[in-house]
Amino acid sequence: MKILIVGAGGAIGKIVTAALKEHEVITVGRNTGTIMADISSETAVENLFKQVSNIDAVICTAGDSATDNLSAMNKAQFMVGIQQKLWPQINLVLAGMQYLNDNGSFTLISGKMGELPVKGSSGKAFVNGAINSFVMAAAQEMPRGIRLNVISPSKVSDIGGDELTEAYVRCLETAINGKIIRIGYNNKR
Amino acid sequence: MKILIVGAGGAIGKIVTAALKEHEVITVGRNTGTIMADISSETAVENLFKQVSNIDAVICTAGDSATDNLSAMNKAQFMVGIQQKLWPQINLVLAGMQYLNDNGSFTLISGKMGELPVKGSSGKAFVNGAINSFVMAAAQEMPRGIRLNVISPSKVSDIGGDELTEAYVRCLETAINGKIIRIGYNNKR
């Protein structure tokens, strides 16, 4: 498969990139990677998909958010997660769904705080919740057999590389669509 | 109780306002209500809480989002929900938590599409998911016994007024905190 990995230089990105080395992997980052592109820019993402043809899968393992104690949070901090984790991933899907090969897949990233938040996590939690709900909704409208799922990991230090790799392979190679894959936790509320 | 109701002129707002008439209700809206205020403005919300003292509860029943078929959605449409439903409600909580009476409560609004989205709902779904996760996170950091919950209704035409009123009364009068109250659907995935 030809796979674009956005955020390959991050902790999760490194594990996933190493595990997928049998595939043709093209790394994308703002400042690093085979291709440099700012995925929050609609033009940049459109150009990315025009530049690299014949893509089977897009994996995004990147996305920042800012958080703090709630009483110290302000609008600018909430907007970091929207501008750097939520919108770029939506943007990847909106543009990429036109270009991906038939039966291709998108695998986005959210995080445990969206479902099981702790104190001081509001700036992360709301972004992760937004990504999960976006995936459940948008997966229903993917064209040409394309699938869309999201990996929701616990802290990287709390999860096993094997479990993580297996989850990404499941998203790439099985028929699952619209799923939230929880890594390192169960959402049993 | 002295209760601020934001969005009292909407379909849900009307039902709730009528049901709470035994209380001292102050309605707030951008263009209607006892007090006019744009709750997306940090200054306006801060002024609102300075102007009206001794508030026991804030209920928000308002918030717009834009949606369409996914292939027709663009950034501007996704941002409508952020600017008109997500951020204003976060803003209400951030400012109001400093002013509400001890043991007061916030009751926000999300919607079924956050958990059980259908085709064409991505622009609603992600906002509702964000609000749900924000509430679960932020409720853990409310000061002075203040509580924060969210009503997640199905379409107004599909829900009973009694069920809705009961849910709001539960948020006002019981000890629940950090809960998503589902109206007109069960989230059994």
From TrEMBL, chains A, B:
Keyword Oxidoreductase in record: yes
Top-level taxon in the UniProt lineage: Bacteria
Molecular function GO labels: oxidoreductase activity
Sorted UniProt keywords: Oxidoreductase
Keyword Oxidoreductase: yes
Family recorded in the similarity comment: Belongs to the short-chain dehydrogenases/reductases (SDR) family.
Name of protein: NAD(P)-dependent dehydrogenase (Short-subunit alcohol dehydrogenase family)
